[in-house]
Amino acid sequence: SKRAQNYQKPNRAAKSNQSTMNIKDRINSHLKTALLASDKQTATTLRGLKSVILDAEIKEGKRDSGMSEDAVVQLLVEQVKQRRESIELYDQAGAKDKADAERAEIDCIEQYLPEQMSEDDIKVLVDKAVEAAGQVSMQQMGQIIGQVKAQAGPSVDGGVIAKLVKERLSQ
Questions:
Q1: 30, 109 in Cβ contact below 8 A?
Q2: Per-residue pLDDT tens digits for 41-61
């Protein structure tokens, strides 16, 4: 038939388009896939992420234009942090099934975050910031954390930076 003659197989370039899609579009695309596959847990997590992003856009008055990728990354980092706190509480309460559900959500969310820096890479940034500051005391810890966070980017957990800075300053 004429339709079959006009059909073109998807090429590799079309698949690599995933990396050029913004995070919001990727979430929408993956949500559709999860719904079609009847993957309820992933669909629920992705719906939650869409809701968080939409709420933030409305609060900032950017509903039509959308938020920057960095702002979306920051929202996702906050979502991961909330779930990690929930995991701690569930583990303390002995609710292993709920903790495991939160871990699965973290795995789902992290696929939309840029690659995390390793602790060793963060330590290098901490060392450079402390050396550049010269004589540093614990009172200047916040300044050092701010400098490292600015260099490391929004996807790095501030708690990890704080821990490493504290370790370095207590040496």
A1: no
A2: 999 999 999 999 999 999 988
pLDDT in tens, 13-42: 333 344 567 999 999 999 999 999 999 999
| Contact status, residue 24 vs residue 63, Cβ threshold 8 Å | no
52: exposed, middle or buried (C-beta count within 10 Å: 0-12, 13-18, 19+)?
middle
In contact, 86 and 102? CB cutoff 8 Å: yes
In angstroms, the Cα distances linking 119 to 9, 10, 167 are: 43, 40, 12
HSE-CB of 7 using CA atoms within 13 angstroms = 6
Which amino acid is it at 171? Q
pTM above 0.85, yes or no: no
